[in-house]
């Protein structure tokens, strides 16, 4: 059953007026991405460059991030009003303390980017082959943190997997040098990093968590209840503008990458096109999205995500799906359909 917009009255009137940009009558919004400006983040740049924020009366500051795990912390701490991040760290953030103030208001990716990558010519050809092998990952990597759930689903003996703790810049080079047999990470990050190091996608063996029993959602637009209760129309306009930018990115990847290049002149457009295509195929397109459109979140599926995180980390209490996501700020359904070439 999809989560439906049943609580619009709760957000019908702001409790306090949002801040206005000086001298322009524009509402200032501080938005943080999860990482550097790359293909997956270009939807925000498209929305800004095409004037979608300005049309809505919004003056939006878009900042790069330091990882998906930092976005709910930034929102809760008040340094930013809204943000974009993979949903998995946010679900853990909520499950650790259900009183924490963060909520998703749109889901861009129907499937999680979390994965394990090995070399196609290496000894890991099936999940079971990971036993007795070395996997490189930072301690805080979301795919590493959720690996026990992947292992349980795939029938892997966790006690036989050797994790090598590394800093993020060292992870992919270790696989290139064959110092490890595999790594955990996000597909749009690690796979393309390997391409940049000379290991083409055809030379990689991918094990997507979403293909092995972990039906996790992916990238989401986040804010806090405090902010959306005070600024419901701002959130509604932001979500509409961002989803418009995202659909434009899907319809015209080359145009989105031009916007990215203007924002980040050192962008390798060919590499980012591979990153974009990988994101679309592995994270955005699904039978569910083709049939129903973007951000049509199932309450049962999201609850399963939350309960898995709670069980995996032995956390107290239970976060309900409607505490983690609300559809109340989405634009009309016709504005959430996939562009014609992808539907």
From TrEMBL:
One of the protein's GO biological processes: thiamine biosynthetic process
InterPro entries: NMT1/THI5, SsuA/THI5
Domain of life, source organism: Bacteria
Domain SsuA/THI5-like: 45-256
Keywords in alphabetical order: Iron, Metal-binding, Pyridoxal phosphate, Thiamine biosynthesis, Transferase
Protein's pathway: Cofactor biosynthesis; thiamine diphosphate biosynthesis
Catalysed reaction, written as an equation: N(6)-(pyridoxal phosphate)-L-lysyl-[4-amino-5-hydroxymethyl-2-methylpyrimidine phosphate synthase] + L-histidyl-[4-amino-5-hydroxymethyl-2-methylpyrimidine phosphate synthase] + 2 Fe(3+) + 4 H2O = L-lysyl-[4-amino-5-hydroxymethyl-2-methylpyrimidine phosphate synthase] + (2S)-2-amino-5-hydroxy-4-oxopentanoyl-[4-amino-5-hydroxymethyl-2-methylpyrimidine phosphate synthase] + 4-amino-2-methyl-5-(phosphooxymethyl)pyrimidine + 3-oxopropanoate + 2 Fe(2+) + 2 H(+)
One Pfam entry name: NMT1
MF term (GO), any: transferase activity
Complex and partners: Homodimer.
Biological role stated in the UniProt entry: Responsible for the formation of the pyrimidine heterocycle in the thiamine biosynthesis pathway. Catalyzes the formation of hydroxymethylpyrimidine phosphate (HMP-P) from histidine and pyridoxal phosphate (PLP). The protein uses PLP and the active site histidine to form HMP-P, generating an inactive enzyme. The enzyme can only undergo a single turnover, which suggests it is a suicide enzyme.
Protein family per UniProt: Belongs to the NMT1/THI5 family.
Name by which UniProt lists this protein: Thiamine pyrimidine synthase
């Amino acid at each position: 059953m999809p989560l439906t917009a049943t609580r619009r009255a709760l957000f019908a009137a702001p409790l306090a007026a949002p801040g206005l940009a000086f001298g322009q009558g524009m509402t200032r919004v501080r938005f943080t991405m999860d990482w550097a400006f790359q293909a997956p983040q270009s939807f925000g740049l498209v929305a800004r460059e095409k004037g979608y924020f300005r049309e809505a009366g919004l003056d939006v500051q878009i900042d790069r991030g330091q990882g998906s795990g930092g976005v709910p912390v930034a929102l809760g701490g008040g340094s930013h009003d809204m943000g974009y991040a993979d949903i998995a760290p946010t679900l853990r953030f909520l499950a650790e303390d259900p009183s924490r103030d963060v909520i998703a208001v749109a889901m861009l990716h129907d499937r999680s980017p979390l994965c394990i990558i090995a070399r196609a010519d290496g000894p890991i050809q099936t999940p079971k082959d990971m036993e007795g092998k070395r996997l490189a990952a930072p301690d805080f990597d979301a795919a590493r943190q959720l690996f026990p759930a992947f292992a349980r689903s795939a029938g892997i003996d966790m006690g036989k997997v050797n994790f090598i703790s590394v800093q993020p810049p060292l992870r992919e080079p270790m696989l290139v040098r064959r110092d490890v047999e595999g790594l955990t990470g996000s597909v749009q990050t690690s796979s393309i990093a390997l391409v940049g190091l000379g290991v083409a996608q055809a030379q990689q063996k991918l094990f997507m968590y979403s293909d092995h029993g972990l039906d996790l959602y992916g990238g989401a637009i986040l804010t806090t209840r405090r902010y959306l209760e005070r600024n419901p129309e701002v959130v509604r306009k932001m979500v509409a503008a961002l989803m418009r930018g995202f659909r434009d990115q899907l319809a015209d990847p080359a145009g989105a990458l031009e916007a990215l290049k203007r924002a980040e002149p050192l962008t390798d457009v060919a590499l980012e096109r591979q990153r974009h295509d990988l994101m679309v195929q592995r994270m955005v397109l699904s039978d569910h999205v083709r049939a129903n459109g973007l951000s049509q979140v199932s309450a049962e599926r999201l609850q399963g995500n939350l309960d898995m995180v709670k069980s995996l980390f032995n956390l107290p209490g239970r976060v309900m799906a409607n505490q983690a996501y609300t559809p109340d700020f989405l634009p009309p359904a016709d504005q959430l359909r996939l562009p014609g070439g992808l539907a």
